[in-house]
Design a protein that fits this description.
CATH class of the largest domain: Alpha Beta
Shape: globular
Helix content: 25-40%
Number of domains: 2
Strand content: 15-25%
Distance between the termini: 35 Å
CATH superfamily of the largest domain: Metal-dependent hydrolases
């Protein structure tokens, strides 16, 4: 038996911060209390003056692998995650081939295992043609849940494109619509898995389509009404069928209000938002540049403030990144040609610690980044907490050090992100995955996580 002892830190527990030691044996936490000592061969880490936090879980990343490894692959994705204290990433299914069957999911899992430095889970894709049997097959293969993109068409030769009703391109199929959700939600509910949606109503987007020559055009083309309508419609399906609905990358005050209405009416619903929506507004585009071109877009100060307040009140459950890098060359093209999306996983934990500190309670951060994501993914019995019996996924943070986001220190293939230049009042010092130190240049030893199908 090999042990790890983390001594003298301030440990985040479900009951709040505790001045304690953490003892790990063979990758699992065995005791959390003051005054511990090694009982077998092992290593002792002095964490005096530091925070000892559960590893982050980013429920919304895009590895781009397979299909577009020049943008990102599982190696660079998980190297960035490791550098940022994120020990589990849940990868979205819009790769090529799209993860719409058990066979594709198993193939993608094998590819990820060969490269991943941290643990990973895989979302399955809901297409307009998906069947209940296909969902069951993906669940049996280990899918953490299913994702529907209400505003995007998919093909095997292209990643995804904004859907235009009436398109005669034979290579494209319509996106999953509300009818698809209503048809498949009972099957998802029976499987005990969440149904995640990219909530933008395609009819509203189609009505506001225009050439995207500037950031103002982007905002005008993605009005918050599209988000609010999609949230309300998807929630009606969830309320009627009992499926757990998860709204991805919530970006607007109007969308938040629609989600709160749904919760009040009895919908099983969880919400994620992203650091870019919590730290930036549309006015930052002139400074940030094309790293801020993403979908949905960063909106107004009023939207930002509403989302922060939603986190403060506990209405928004978690923060993820929608980590979606491209090559630096692609992001340097003219506005209309530059693809939407930016990296973010490496700065997730630090940004949430900073935001929580500004609210006067730094211990909110691990709730947003670890505990709530673990529940969504069905991992709450093994991940997301520092407690006896849990995997020793541990992040040691120095609250007396500072970190400045610099492109040369980013591990993603796209080095410049939306938070480039941001300074945080914390620094990540050590990251452990199942008790083993994780480094951005370390070996691939990540595992695929599978949800425990417990009642949510």
């Amino acid at each position: 038996m090999t042990e790890l002892l983390i001594k003298g830190g301030t440990v985040y527990t479900e009951d709040g911060p505790l001045e304690a030691d953490v003892l790990v044996a063979d990758g699992v936490i065995t005791r959390v209390e003051p005054g511990l000592a090694l009982t077998a061969k092992g290593k002792e880490i002095d964490a005096t003056g530091k925070y000892v936090l559960p590893g982050g879980i980013d429920v919304h990343v895009h590895s781009r692998d397979p299909g577009f490894p020049e943008k990102e692959d599982f190696g660079t994705l998980t190297a960035a995650a490791a550098a940022g204290g994120v020990t589990v990433v849940l990868d979205m299914p819009n790769t090529v081939p799209a993860v719409d069957s058990a066979g594709v999911l198993e193939s993608k899992a094998a590819l990820a295992r060969s490269k991943a430095r941290v643990d990973f889970g895989l979302w399955g894709l809901i297409r307009s043609t998906t069947t209940a049997d296909e969902l069951a097959g993906m669940a049996a293969a280990g899918a953490v849940g299913f994702k529907a993109y209400l505003a995007y068409s998919f093909s095997q030769s292209r990643k995804q494109v904004l859907y235009s009703p009436g398109s005669d391109d034979p290579d494209l199929e319509p996106p999953a619509d509300y009818g698809t959700l209503a048809r498949l939600a009972p099957a998802v509910a029976r499987l005990g898995l969440p149904l995640a949606v990219h909530a933008e109503d395609p009819a509203i987007l189609a009505a506001f389509q225009r050439p995207l020559l500037s950031y103002s055009d982007l905002l005008d083309s993605r009005p918050p009404e599209a988000e609010a309508v999609a949230v309300s419609a998807a929630a009606a399906v969830a309320r009627d069928t009992g499926v757990h609905l998860h709204i991805a990358h919530l970006s607007s005050a109007l969308g938040l209000a629609a989600a709160e209405d749904a919760v009040r009416s009895g919908t099983s619903l969880s919400l994620e938002t992203c650091p870019q929506f919590l730290f930036l507004t549309a006015e930052d585009f002139d400074r940030v540049g094309l790293a801020m071109k993403m979908l949905p877009p960063v909106r107004t100060a009023a939207d930002r403030d509403a989302l922060i307040d939603g986190l403060r009140r506990g209405v928004i459950d978690m923060v993820s990144t929608d980590h979606a890098p491209h090559t630096d060359e692609e992001k340097s093209r003219p506005f209309e040609d530059a693809p939407a999306g930016s990296p973010g996983v490496q700065t997730l934990y630090l940004s949430c610690l900073q935001l929580a500190k500004s609210m006067g309670d730094v211990w909110l951060a691990p709730r947003w980044v670890s505990q709530a994501p673990a529940v969504l993914a069905g991992l709450e019995e093994s991940k997301g907490s520092i407690a006896s019996g849990f995997d020793a996924d541990i992040v040691i943070v120095d609250p007396a050090a500072r970190t400045r986001v610099r492109p040369e220190e980013m591990r993603s293939r796209q080095r410049r992100g939306a938070l480039d230049g941001k300074e945080f009042d914390f620094a990540i010092k050590e990251v452990y995955l199942r008790g083993e130190p994780v480094t951005r240049a370390g070996k691939a030893h990540g595992r695929m996580v599978r949800p425990a199908l417990v009642a949510r």
